[in-house]
Amino acid sequence: ILIGHKVKLLSVAFSPIGEQFATASEDNTARIWYISTGKQHILQGHDGKVYRVEFSANGEQVATASNDNTARLWNVSTDKKLQIIKEYGKPLYHVVFSPNGMQIVTASNDKTAQLWDAKTGNLLQTFKGHKKSVSRVEFSPNGKQLVTGSEDETARLWDVESGKQLQTFKGHKDPLSDVVFSPNGKQIATA
What string of DSSP letters covers 16-76? Predict the structure, then answer.
């Protein structure tokens, strides 16, 4: 058992390298844990609960999403903040890297998902169409599409480059809590 956070954990993610994992918590921090030693590095800077933590595909960066209305990118080896995304006026529920690590996409209480340049922090695209908060977002394996899940009980498929909505998936009777692409990118599962 590893001890560190003093309150509820909200997210956990393994590094693709497999030597670390990261946690996000209601204590306004994320932490990087080293499996072989049990040591941890604390990522401090958020002023609210950290809802989500995700590693980049190469394991060199971590992205966090918080109810302080920001997403942050961190260097795993130095714990240094690389970018602070502050464009939202509402809490961010989810963040994920594109497969190539060049962009991140965030999901927000403002009913949108937004695509950002991971190096510069510049906004590249806004995906609008949901009628309630966007709680989850995922890139397709090739990075050309993304799927969003919302409290409006729908999932939506988007073209990343144009921002165009390609399809709406209806049928849930409750808010969506998860969306995923199949490994080949041809199917989507929602919960």
Answer: TTSSEEEEEETTS-EEEEETTT--EEEE---SS-EEEEEE-TTSSEEEEEETTS-EEEEET
Q: Which of 43, 146, 53 is nearest to 93 (CA)?
A: 53
* 48 close to 64: Cβ distance less than 8 angstroms: no
Does residue 29 contact residue 9 with C-beta atoms inside 8 Å? no
pLDDT confidence of residue 147:
98
**C-beta of residue 130 within 8 angstroms of C-beta of residue 148:** yes
Q: Please list the residues that pair with 108 across neighbouring strands.
A: 92
The answer to whether 75 and 96 have CB atoms below 8 angstroms apart is: no
pTM of this prediction? Answer: 0.92
Q: How many Cα atoms are found within 13 Å in the side-chain-facing hemisphere of 24?
A: 27
Cβ distance 45 to 81 under 8 Å? yes
Burial 100-137 (b: 16+ CB within 10 A, else e): ebebbbbbbbbbbbbbbebeebeebbebebbeebbbbb
CA distance 19 to 41: 13
Question: pLDDT digit string (tens) for 132-166?
Answer: 999 999 999 999 999 999 999 999 999 999 999 99
